[in-house]
Structure formats: structure tokens, C-alpha cells
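Read as chain and fold; for instance:
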Amino acid sequence: MQESQGIVFLGEGNRTVELRTPILKRFPVCEVCVEVNSKLQYRGLFQMILVLGIGGSFPYGFHISAISYPSLHIRTFINETWIERYGYPLHPETIMLLWSFIVSVYGIGGLLGSLYCGYLTTKYRKKKCQIVTNLIMLVASLFMAFCKMAKSFEMILIGRFLYGMGTGFSLTIHPQYVGEISPKKLRGFSNSTLAVFLTLGKVLGQIFGLRELLGNESLWPLLLASTGLTALIQLIMLPFFPESPSYLLIQEGNEDAFMKAIKQLWGEGDHQAEIDDILKEKAATKSTKTLRVLELFKERSLRWQLYFLVTIMTSLQLSGVNAIYFYSFEVFRTARFEDYLIPYISLGIGTCECLSSIVCSSLIERFGRRMLLCGGYVLMIFVLILLTMTLSLQHQFFWMHYFSVVLIFLFVICYGIGPAGATVAIITEIFSQSFRPSAFLIYGSISWVWLFVLGMIFPYIVESLGSFCYLIFLGILVFSSVFTYLFLPETKGKSIMEIKGEFNKLNFGKKQAVNTENNLSKEHTFCTRL
């Protein structure tokens, strides 16, 4: 397809059909065809997004939801194994302690994986580290698959720890990788797919965890080993895809590999504007080395970026959505739902979150990250206020139970459309290539630490505050919504250097920011001439 002076030429074999633009306006179908052709141009990018997703955030979501379904069978297995070994049963409190350790060791492994990921990805590249991550996940799945046959509950502990370590790596690598391989106009969509695959993992974990499928006494080891399949698929497919173009040019200085990666991921076409943006980022980079966490904290030009990283990641973990999942079973029981129906209602919640994340990926390039984030916060605040009221009044009015269930569904939908997809997109875009690995090390550490803390203290918060336990999350959401609305610049459709210029106004003040931008422009012009 070619376009010149208001005329569009569409090639059909040896014939060329001439269409003037007024005709395109009269026939919207032609515009759709043009849009489809432009999307097909990026099919290499979409294929890589799929491959990264199934081995990236998908296993995290799967294990978060799937582990609760075979809990009774695992505790029974622990007791039976102990009786067979030592001839006497374990005390119920000891069984519960071992079960709690099986659940929490996943977070310990995830935190360790996140802490070491920054150094390893800098030294060995993201692609190689993700391939090694798949091997770790495969080993973990083997431990899970054969634990019952070997009559060893220690294998479950080892498998959960390795799963956590592998997920810690993949959750740190996935958002960086998928953000760096995307052009500016698709970067928000690409980053939001992290939430899509995570929630898809949750839903499939809930589906396969049903007793009719793998959540029964005989098949639960296969349930826990299921993500070995996704690791195997990514292990086979990932070597056929390149490193991120920005990494190849800025960190490696390999122009030939850079152009080859651009062509493979973005197809044929004019990508000069995108290339110019990466060249500007390279010209502004003081060093081709990836800078460490301590250097990130010392860098004055990243002060406000760090504020937003800590704020929006803390808000994501303490938004109340994890607590909603935890408390939803109690709400459903008080709403007088039968116990056998509760897993299916929980599956409905997971499905709503997954569908809302897909909606977010289609809206993020239209409305921008800032609007989705702030709008999601505001809607979640409103729903939490109503949920607190209905939970406190549910013993006085019988119909309040059902209203609480509806509000739980609404809260999860607001979370999926807003913060779930927009948060990772913002974090990826506000840090340049050199600082991004260290930034995501902090991102992963905050995520795993808060997940562990929330799992430990939330039952005590519920016991102390009852239905008013959500007021803590309400306060965090109010602060985050005001902070992001007042200070966070919109990053949609902007290059990394343009976003950096916006933050320079916060970090240095407007006058000094203008001087800094002028100096960077001169440096880029000089490099281009060379």
C-alpha cells in the first residue's frame, strides 16, 4: 500500500487500484483493511508477547490461585507420610505449620529471585536468564509431579521454593522485555498484557483446581506440576526471538543485530522515528553499563521516578484486591451460599479480573496510563466505602449479603481495568535502559515483601477490625490517587527522552529542565552527524 497527495494505491497482484481519500471516508471498510494490514506488520511482536506471557506472569497467577484447592489433600498427605515413616500422626497444629510454610516458601523464593535477577540479567542478558528460568521451573514441576510417588512432602517444599525463585526471575524480566521490544504506539498495550497473562493464570488455576479436573485426591500432584508445560513451550520457542532492540543498540552497541531485531519484530516499514528516539536515549546515556540500585538512589534525575515506583507498587499490593480474594470465601458463606458453590463463584471473580485486564489492554493507548490509573483508584475507593458499609450491616438486613458479593465483583473489575494494567506500563516507561533492571529489582522486592506481609498480618487485622479492615486499604488508595493526579505526567505516545524531560521539571525545576533538554538535543545532533 502506498499513499501520495491524498491518493491511496492498493496493490492487487499485477493490478493497482487507485482510491482517493474521500472514497475511503465513504467506505469505512477500507480503513479497517488498512488498520488490519498495519497490525499484521507487527505479527513478530505479537508472537513474542505471547511467548513471553506464557512463561512470564502466567505461572505466578496460576500458583497464586491453584495452591488453595488441594490444601486438604496436601495436609492429609503430610500426615500419612509421617505415620508411614514414624508410626504416629502429627499434631494438627504441626500440620498447619508445615502447610503454612509450603505456602509462604513460594514468596521467599520469589524475593530471592527478584534480588539476584538484576545482576544476572545485566551480566548474561534477559533472554538467557529467562531460558534458565524455564529450566528451574521444569525441575520444580518434576519435584511436584513425583512427590506423591516418592512419599515425600519435602519435595513439595523444594518445588514451591524453586517455583518462587523462577517466578521471581520471570516477573522481573517479563515487563522489561515486553516493554523494550515494543514501538512507542504499542508500548502501553504490550505492557498491559502482563496483567492479562497473570489473571489468565489465576483463572486457569481455578479451573484446573476444581475437584472434577485436577483438584482431587489422586491428581493434585499434576495440578501443581502443570506450569512445567508452559515453561517447556517457552524454552523451545524463545531462542527463535531476538534480544530487545534498545538493549542491542544502547548496551551492546551492535547496530547490525539492532536492525535485524527491528525488522523481525516490527516488520518492513518506516521506523525511523522510533530509531531516532532510541538514538537520543543512547546519546543521553552517561554509560553503557547497567547502573546498580545504589546508583539509582543517588541519581537526582530519578528522584520522582522512585517516588512513583514505591507509591504505585505499594498501592498495587495494598489496594485490597488480595484481601478481597482472601475474605471472599467468608462473605460467600455469610451470604448463605453452599460450600460446593463457593469455588465456582471465586472462579467468576477470577474471570471478571481477566476480562477487565483485556479491556484495559484495549483502552490504555486510547485514554492513557494516568487516566486509567487515577480513574481505577477513584472507582475502587467508592466501591470499598460501599463494601465496608454492606459488611457492617449484613447482620441487620439479609439482602446486604448479596450486595456485598456484587461489590466484590465490581471492585475486581475496577482493579483490572485500572491499576492492574497501567502500573507496569508506567514503571517501564519512566526509567531509561540503564536504570530499568535496578528499578525492576526494587519493583519485584516491594511486590514480594508486601505479599508476604499481607499474608501474615491480614488474618489478625480481620480479627481485630472485622468489616472495617478495608479502611486501611482505603487510606492508601486515597493517598495514591491524589499523588498520581497531582504529579504524574502522562506517558502515552512519548519517547523515553520526552518522559525524562517531563520528570526533569519535577526533579530540577522548570528552568534547569529546559537547559538540560537543550544540552541533550545538541548531543543527539552531534551524534547523528557523526
